[in-house]
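Deliverable D2.4 — example input (structure tokens):
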């Protein structure tokens, strides 16, 4: 069977996974009577809850006798490593761009990787049914912006001649001629994705293979089966392989020393729709799954023998943030989950790093603390949430931006390009916030809107990564939740100077017990509370934000003294005025250098690294 290998790349929320849904439905992967859920490729619980794609996943469709392997990729910049490692598996890419929003930061990032790999790009302008796009002027503007982006990124003359499809992924139709769009939107014509399927068969080349060479495959992804163990996923660049054949794994050990290992293929699978179908042999050009080796890692090359050379290992962008993971040492450790030892925490983090090439693992001076290096706060938040759902208890520290030094020993820090879409009335406050964080305004653009809708603007800033830590929740608060926020790393620049992180101190419990409403009422005028009544606390645990810059040790467990003397006046029922609920992401943004986040399956708590109040200072200048 003829084969095509493509991936779908785009900025977050531009419609990749929705488009794959309809490609699967219209290609006959599902039966007519099957009831399908939306975003069928987002199979993880966290992906469904958050509405984003986190892991790259494989599927395939059969169009006119040609098998098209499709890789759905994440759109968020924090998961860019997922995109980088699958680029080598495919020969073409569908680049989705929102017809109203146009190319955004992650669009630039993923397109750069695709162009460098020499992929054939097909532009899909999605969401052409949006009211501000119906007249076509905005769509033409977005196509021109995309063309300019290709030029900026150094596309070849052949890549600049990209074909264009106008689509509405939500309704499952597309057209190659924009003049057909009004009839499709009005329902006067029944549309399908057939123009897109035909275009893929015309433009995407057959898989590149190495002729007259024995079996060779680069491992680009990993999976796990309860029956056959670890699964290696990748594209076969040459030769073929059969079940029970003895092949060679060319990998590296923890010290970067090449390590070769022979093993027998236990099972072979290929993708058919959403299923992995077992087969007896695989051919060059296809994307396959091989079982039989528990040590295989992403970046390894599987070959038929020692005469076949190893392929270059997958290289991804360097991490920009680090976070320390520690064994839970709080007085409540083991009450709500499994209080794991350092050995088990280390094994879990190493397992995550092996499956995610964008993460790195480092030992620290403390035997029960480990440093994980990654791309962004969301990437860490997803890892932490996965671990707590597995029943683990542990602690994490404040994210630290990774610095570099140039040849003159000058400190360099990562700089990010941030794009903000927000209502115009909030622009001045947002600009002030970003400029306080050393951001430089690069562009101010009015966005097209429907008549009667409030006007929106797009602001673009260059801002240090340090300035983005903790800014997302403040930005959403300023824009009343109506602002969109995205960014990508530009590179390293000289250190920009100190940036204020948190101007307020913490309200810290001074004893073990449970919070009492009477005790909390007396603390309301001191700041903002994070906990309500009846919550277990311990000495050193943070219960709120103090309205001054220093910390304050308080007693949230204080009860009202009862006497047998009746009060002269009737007592009025008084309740707490408001409590700030601290989610995991909000805690990561809020904490300071001398604080931990305690994570358990049931709770997320904030605490001081030194619990005893007699051993720590409350002055900000001394504690940070």
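Example output (designed residues):
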């Amino acid at each position: 069977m003829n084969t095509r290998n493509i991936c779908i790349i785009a900025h977050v929320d531009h419609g990749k996974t929705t488009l794959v849904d309809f490609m699967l439905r219209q290609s006959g992967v599902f039966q007519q009577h099957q009831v399908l859920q939306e975003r069928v490729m987002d199979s993880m619980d966290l992906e469904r809850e958050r509405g984003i794609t986190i892991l790259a996943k494989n599927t395939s469709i059969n169009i006119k006798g040609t098998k098209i392997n499709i890789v759905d990729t994440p759109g968020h910049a924090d998961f860019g490593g997922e995109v980088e490692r699958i680029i080598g598996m495919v020969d073409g890419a569908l680049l989705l761009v929102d017809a109203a929003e146009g190319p955004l930061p992650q669009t630039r990032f993923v397109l750069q990787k695709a162009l460098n790999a020499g992929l054939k790009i097909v532009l899909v302008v999605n969401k052409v049914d949006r009211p501000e796009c119906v007249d076509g002027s905005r769509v033409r503007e977005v196509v021109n912006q995309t063309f300019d982006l290709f030029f900026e990124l150094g596309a070849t003359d052949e890549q600049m001649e990209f074909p264009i499809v106008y689509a509405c992924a939500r309704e499952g139709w597309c057209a190659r001629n924009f003049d057909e769009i009004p009839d499709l939107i009005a329902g006067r014509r029944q549309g399908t994705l057939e123009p897109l399927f035909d275009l893929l068969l015309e433009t995407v080349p057959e898989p590149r293979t190495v002729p007259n060479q024995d079996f060779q495959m680069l491992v680009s992804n990993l999976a796990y089966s309860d029956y056959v163990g670890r699964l290696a996923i990748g594209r076969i660049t040459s030769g073929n392989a059969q079940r029970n054949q003895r092949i060679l794994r060319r990998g590296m050990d923890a010290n970067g020393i090449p390590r070769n290992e022979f093993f027998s293929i236990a099972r072979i699978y290929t993708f058919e729709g959403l299923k992995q179908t077992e087969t007896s042999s695989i051919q060059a050009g296809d994307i396959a799954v091989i079982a039989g080796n528990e040590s295989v890692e992403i970046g390894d090359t599987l070959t038929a023998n020692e005469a076949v050379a190893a392929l270059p290992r997958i290289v991804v962008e360097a991490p920009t943030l680090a976070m320390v993971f520690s064994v839970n040492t709080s007085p409540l450790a083991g009450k709500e989950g499994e209080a794991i030892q350092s050995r088990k925490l280390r094994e879990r983090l190493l397992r995550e790093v092996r499956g995610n090439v964008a993460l790195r693992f480092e030992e620290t001076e403390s035997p029960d603390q480990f440093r994980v290096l990654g791309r962004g706060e969301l990437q860490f938040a997803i890892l932490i949430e996965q671990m707590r759902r597995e029943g683990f208890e542990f602690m994490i520290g404040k994210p630290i931006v990774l610095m570099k030094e140039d040849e003159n020993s000058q400190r360099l820090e990562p700089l990010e390009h941030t794009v903000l879409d927000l209502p115009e009335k909030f622009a001045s406050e947002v600009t002030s916030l970003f400029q306080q964080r050393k951001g430089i305004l690069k562009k101010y653009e009015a966005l097209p809107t429907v008549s009667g809708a409030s006007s929106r603007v797009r602001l673009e800033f260059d801002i240090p990564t340090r300035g983005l830590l903790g800014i997302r929740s403040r930005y959403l608060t300023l824009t009343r939740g109506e602002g969109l926020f995205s960014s990508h790393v530009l590179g390293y620049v000289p250190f920009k100077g100190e940036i204020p992180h948190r101007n307020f101190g913490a309200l810290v419990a001074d004893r073990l017990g449970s919070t009492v409403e009477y005790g909390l009422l007396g603390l309301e005028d001191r700041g903002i509370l994070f906990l309500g009544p009846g919550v277990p606390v311990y000495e050193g645990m943070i219960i709120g934000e103090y309205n001054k810059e220093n910390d304050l040790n308080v007693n949230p467990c204080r009860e009202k003294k009862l006497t047998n003397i009746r009060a002269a006046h009737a007592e009025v029922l008084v309740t707490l005025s408001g409590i700030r609920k601290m989610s995991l992401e909000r805690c990561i943004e809020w904490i300071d250098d001398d604080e931990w986040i305690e994570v358990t399956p049931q709770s997320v708590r904030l605490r001081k690294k030194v619990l005893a109040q007699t051993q720590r200072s409350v002055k900000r200048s001394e504690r940070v």
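The mean pLDDT is 85.
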